[in-house]
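Class, carefully examine what follows:
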Amino acid sequence: MSRRPFPPDRLSAATAAVFAEMLERLNPKRRMRTCPRVIKRARHNSYRVKRPSDVAVTHTSPPTIKLEGLPAAA
């Protein structure tokens, strides 16, 4: 029983192709959170403590959802 050679010969070409494809479709810029991640009291965690200036953001439109691979709506 023979083993396959590792890494495969075409690994570098496949890796380059995958990275090129990922760079073609970058994620769009995200809108600000409705309620920022904060906590009421500082304990043992990495979140920041809530301040009076931390208020919920009111958005003027619903979130935009884009599904890849589906035809555009007419």
